[in-house]
Design a protein that fits this description.
Blueprint lengths: L26 H10 L6 E4 L6 H8 L5 E6 L2 H10 L4 H10 L4 H9 L5 H14 L27 H13 L4 E5 L2 H7 L6 E5 L7 H4 L7 H8 L6 E6 L2 H9 L3 E8 L5 E8 L3 H4 L7 H10 L2 H4 L3
The structure holds S-adenosylmethionine.
Length: about 300
């Protein structure tokens, strides 16, 4: 039976970012993976967190008690650190009062932020107004945007504020670390109660999407192979990665996904035993309905 391509609109989006290479569409698979485990992990970790959509979903779905997000990009880090600090609710309010016009956006993006809070606000604005949410140097502003609304076309202040406040309210269960994801994996290799979702930059497209895109994949695999906790890695379906997986005696499985241009591509999952991924996917739709009910007809378009 052909595997289903997940409709991302069926996954409630919990992240304040619209993240390039974001894994919203993988969330139903991650739920299936966690549910297949003999024991729920106490802590869930995302060593290459980006927008953190998978970790946030696991936490909010009650599939783990604690969440650790790790990221090396200082702009992205400023957002997580601010939301998880006493300033989290202030960030939500500032977003509600920001009016995105070409002029206000250019002025916001050209400033050198003096505080972590300013940097966080600037990063959120950049993520919303640049093409594809790409924040790496060289990315450009959306010109026409959706429905000719230009730079404001992805600015959904209520949705953003709501997501930020939800994370802020759960901050006692979430920690963020600005550090190298491989080092974090190495340092936590003995944690049996921690499950790791490992989504490093894609081997091919990463350079265009992220400021930090160079990864020593071999070192990553050799550390992952020593983990005592459960883990799931995800990659583009690249030959060298398959070779590494087989060298470290890991299981691989490909699943279909749609890229931003709606082309169906294959994603490579890597783990110790991926039999759970070969079973038909159990989709849990209830969460979507709750999201839509809570936010009315604007809910669907505001999912990102
Ligand atoms: C594919 S993206 C993760 C997307 C994320 N899973 C989501 O759904 O939003 C990879 C992330 O790894 C980060 N990154 C790159 N090198 C890193 C490193 N050595 N340690 C931690 N994070 C790193 C990039 O900045 C980028 O945010």
């Amino acid at each position: 039976m052909a595997a289903r391509v997940i409709n991302v609109a069926s996954v409630p989006h919990r992240s304040p970012f619209r993240y390039p290479g974001g894994k919203t569409w993988l969330v139903p698979y991650v739920r299936q993976w966690i549910r297949s485990l003999p024991r729920r992990p106490f802590e869930f970790a995302e060593p290459f967190a980006g927008g953190g959509i998978v970790g946030l979903s696991v936490l909010f779905d009650g599939l783990a008690e604690k969440l650790t997000l790790v990221e090396i990009d200082e702009d992205v880090a400023s957002v997580w650190k601010t939301i998880l600090s006493a300033q989290g609710s202030r960030l939500a309010s500032e977003i509600m009062s920001f009016r995105p016009t070409e002029e206000s956006v250019r002025s916001c993006l050209s400033r050198t932020p003096k505080t972590q809070f300013d940097r966080a606000l600037q990063t959120i604005v950049r993520n919303r107004v640049q093409r594809g949410g790409i924040m790496a140097p060289g990315a450009s502003l959306m010109r026409r945007g959706e429905n000719g609304r230009g730079v404001a076309s992805r600015w959904y202040p209520e949705t953003l504020a709501r997501r930020i406040l939800a994370i802020f309210e759960s901050r006692h269960r979430i920690r963020f670390r600005l550090e190298d994801g491989i080092q974090f994996i190495h340092d936590n290799a003995n944690r049996k109660d921690m499950a790791f979702f490992i989504d490093p930059p894609y081997t091919v497209a990463g350079r265009r999407l992220y400021l930090h895109s160079q990864i020593d994949h071999e070192r990553l695999f050799s550390d992952v192979a020593t983990l005592r906790g459960e883990f799931l890695m995800t990659y583009d379906n690249a030959g060298p990665i398959r070779t590494l997986a087989s060298r470290f005696r890991l299981d691989t499985h490909t699943i279909p996904m749609k890229n931003t241009h709606h082309r169906v591509m294959t994603e490579l999952l890597v783990g110790r035993d991926l039999d759970w991924a070969r079973k038909p996917l159990q989709l849990v739709q209830d969460a979507l309905f709750e999201d839509l009910q809570a936010h009315g007809s604007a809910g669907r378009q505001a999912l990102y």
